[in-house]
Design a protein that fits this description.
The protein is mainly alpha-helical. It has a single domain, classed as Penicillin binding protein transpeptidase fold. Helices cover 56% and strands 4% of the residues. The chain has nine helices and three strands. The longest helix is centred in the middle third of the chain and has 17 residues. The radius of gyration is 16 Å and the shape is globular.
Length: 189
């Protein structure tokens, strides 16, 4: 967050760090399910690593297709809370270490709560509550299914895409997330 703040300053923009913590029980179930549906469908069943997704991402990247990540919500949480941005084998090693630790010491509910509170959701916007206030002028517990899916659909690149101005591609991703949300609607936290 601090690094992004300095990047904004170097780009001639003002300092911006919008963040508000929202307890898990005060977030919309639509948002929780959309996050799992869009980011890590096997979240409730793996131990922090989804080796099939990692292998798929590796094969697509190796084939020269657009870079795709295979990180789970647990891995992204470890990276966002404990590590620096960027890609390197050293950072990936630390990410694996912290992922294993949070899977041991935190519940899935806690991992998802932290993830939804620290994830970058726009330029200087961190966490679900700050994002819902920015884009929809309402708190995170009041999101509709579509609004939740839109927030999650832009996560691969929230500096390029915005839920307020979805592109055709983002709307396509929203439809996929919404379909997966129907499949996952009975998740118990």
């Amino acid at each position: 967050m601090v690094q992004r703040g300095f990047e904004r300053k170097f780009d001639g923009k003002g300092w911006k760090l919008e963040k508000q913590w929202r307890d898990f029980d005060d977030m919309s179930n639509n948002l929780k399910i959309a996050a799992i549906a869009g980011e890590d469908a096997n979240f409730m069943h793996h131990n922090g690593f989804d080796f099939k997704s990692i292998q798929k991402a590796y094969m697509k990247n190796k084939a020269g297709k657009p870079i795709r990540g295979g990180s789970t919500i647990s891995q992204q949480t470890a990276k966002n809370v404990f590590l620096w941005p960027g890609r390197s084998y050293i950072r990936k090693g630390f990410e694996a270490y912290f992922t294993a630790l949070i899977e041991i010491f935190w519940s899935k509910k806690r991992i998802l709560e932290v993830y939804l509170n620290v994830i970058e959701m726009g330029d200087g916007i961190y966490g679900a509550d700050a994002a819902t206030l920015e884009y929809y002028q309402k708190p995170a517990e009041k999101l509709t299914k579509r609004q939740a899916a839109l927030l999650i659909a832009v996560l691969p690149n929230p500096l390029k895409w915005s839920p307020a101005k979805p592109t055709r591609y983002i709307n396509y991703k929203v439809s996929l997330i919404r379909r997966n949300m129907k499949i996952l609607r009975n998740i118990k936290f």
